[in-house]
Amino acid sequence: TTGDISKRKAAEAAIAEVTSGMLVGLGTGSTAAFAISGLGRRIAEEGLTITAAGTSLATEAAARAAGIPFLAFDDLAAVDLCIDGADEIDPLFRAIKGGGGAMLREKIVASAATRMICIVDASKPVETLSRALPIEVLSFARAYVEGAIRCLGGDPVIRPAPSDQGNLLIDCAFGPIVDPEGLARTLDAIPGLLGHGLFLSEIDALYIGDETSVARRER
Ligand code: DER
């Protein structure tokens, strides 16, 4: 589909920054999937030699299928370059991630990266973040965290499947998020809430694909 062409173009532009010897953080989702298959092709065709860190079990399986060597996640301390998608991203490179439920590991890899590139099609850039915000919650803290989210004006909806870590994934509709930093600070202070999809400082560069070209923006 045209969306796929745009996502693939953004991914292929981003993986051009990968050089041999790098430890590369591989994101989760359909756009990141194009980066994974593209890196697999570069390994096969150019002899690129990299090690990867996967942000989800699905991404680790895709990396394995693409012939990309990767580290066990608990051996990961830092990566050179992280390439990942986003559900929304605003003009200040603040993003909502977690559509695929992987934002806890994605944020660890993004924070551990010297440079993080976000790859998107034209549907992701927005003026104001307003999608439902994915959060990961320790299941025994469900009622408490749901109550805290409602006090913040959010509407929590629990996903049917748990996260890769076996915790609850809850999508919280807050409407337009006019103070993302304030909301992130408040969420980070809620005990039992393990992670959320507000990525406010991690993204260094944005590649926006469309059917014929890619726009690159630096923070
Ligand atoms: O779950 C995630 O954080 C993904 O990166 C998501 O934000 C983007 O997924 P997509 O590339 O399939 O749209």
UniProtKB/TrEMBL annotation:
Annotated GO biological process: D-ribose metabolic process; pentose-phosphate shunt, non-oxidative branch
Organism domain of life: Bacteria
Annotated metabolic or biological route of this protein: Carbohydrate degradation; pentose phosphate pathway; D-ribose 5-phosphate from D-ribulose 5-phosphate (non-oxidative stage): step 1/1
UniProt-annotated binding residues for substrate: 28-31, 84-87, 97-100, 124
Catalyzed reactions per annotation: aldehydo-D-ribose 5-phosphate = D-ribulose 5-phosphate
Any Pfam family: Rib_5-P_isom_A
Record CDD domains: RPI_A (cd01398)
Keywords, ordered alphabetically: Isomerase
Location of the active site: 106
GO molecular function, one term: ribose-5-phosphate isomerase activity
Top EC group: isomerase
InterPro entries: NagB/RpiA_transferase-like, Ribose5P_isomerase_typA_subgr, Ribose5P_isomerase_type_A
EC number: 5.3.1.6
A single Gene Ontology CC term: cytosol
Classification via PANTHER family: RIBOSE-5-PHOSPHATE ISOMERASE (PTHR11934)
Function: Catalyzes the reversible conversion of ribose-5-phosphate to ribulose 5-phosphate.
Subunit structure as annotated in this protein's UniProt entry: Homodimer.
Alphabetized HAMAP family for the sequence: Rib_5P_isom_A
Protein family: Belongs to the ribose 5-phosphate isomerase family.
Protein name stated in the entry: Ribose-5-phosphate isomerase A
UniProt organism field: Sphingomonas chungangi
